[in-house]
Amino acid sequence: MYYISDFFKKLLMKIHAIRVCPSKEKLSKEEQFAWKLAEMASDDVKVSAEVADMVVNRIIDNAAVAVASLNRRPVAQARAQALSHGRTGKGANVFGMPNSCSLHAEWAAWANCTAVRELDFHDTFLAADYSHPGDSIPAVLAVAQQKGKDGKAVLRGIAAAYEAHVNLVKGICLHKHKIDHVAHLCPSQAVGVGALMDLPTEQIYQAVQQALHTSVSTRQSRKGEISSWKAYVPAHGAKLAIEAVDRAMRGEKSPSPIYEGEDSVIAWLLDGPKAVYRVPLPEKGEEKRAILETYTKEHSAEYQSQALIDLAFDMRRRIKELSGIESILIETSHHTHNVIGTGSNDPQKFDPFATRETLDHSIMYIFAVALEDGFWHHEKSYAPERAQRKETVSLWRKITTVEKERWTKLYHDTDPDKKAFGGKVIVKMKDGSMVEGELERANAHPAGARPFGRAQYIQKFDTLTEGIVAQDERNRFIELIQRLPELSPEDIVQLNVQVDLEKLLNNKPNEEGIF
Fold it and tell me: Which of 45, 53, 113, 198 has the most Cβ atoms closer than 10 angstroms to its Cβ?
């Protein structure tokens, strides 16, 4: 396992203290955290085989979940918008469309990010805040295709984006102040594009500041009735980031210092003028390995439910009759209890007519269905007829969550070998007997019972794309992506999954909107 060696390597990283500085202090740009991010991005350190291997896994993972969502409404709408922005000559391509379909990079990233995010089924990193670092990949790939970059440049860009995102999430909590996590994602997307393009530190610095300044939004998108905007959030960040890099390359400046300024995000939206945040970053010449700390999902649901889904499958075999259940208590972390549990105080999380996005953020619903069915499916488990089943609603409403210090401590542990996002479940039966179980990590987690490797990523791709992607196209893509480090610019343009256009909704521009 890379986890133990990585933990000790991380101890060598430099910890940057970020605080609000009055304008009169005249903080130099070299002292600003946005500059430190840019320095990291512009430090062209060789990408190890281990990191390259994981980048390949995550591109396969992204493609799998994107293709599975191609005809879902938000994805089809995003694609229709993007197709109105065709590009003559070299451009970027969009999941599902022919590789000859050339679009402006920021619009291709818009469509592809939405497709990747829609099912909430790709990678995650949880620490002081939440994140889906794989959301940076479509932005980096789109710009690589348009600008003629090769596989080594793509690896450099994606590794840098993950490094920025993972470490921001370790050090700065956004959700405490009800700020959505795109405020970490968008600067990371700018870092990734800047590293891909091998831009100087100054230009990446300006792009990072612009990206953060324009991407701050509230967490209302993840509260109450959760709408389709949740799928568009990373796409919005990708467009903002690509445009920020473009402006920086043309010599434009940005609000500065964006983290430390008197009227900055930290000063007014986060912990305030007296705050001190500590964020680790690799030293100059140090390898970027943050992607190895992230983890994907085996089940199409919020990451904090992954271990609990696995636990539900196990406990199902120990409960003879589900109708005999009187109550279910889930002991878990502060975040799980307050975000997807009863601590959120969201009545929508018990509503059988709620949106898929809302059900995906209800551990009560998720655990009930997993317990009843013994499997989890990205479509069947969320179908309206499934959510509205009488016995399911009855079981669902018997479930409550509670925060326990042990699980919160595990959630925040800085040692990846100890960090965990599971819980303990106590089922009280009507006859007075109890059935209990607990699981610290999902089976697919790198430290879990059945860690995901290349074979599992490919199996996930095959499962999600069955009946959508022709076998020849599947083989072409899987063979190509596994040669990523050696791919030419011409190969990178082919790094897409095409489907039969007759199976694809919104496969050409429409006039439903402005574009």
Answer: 113
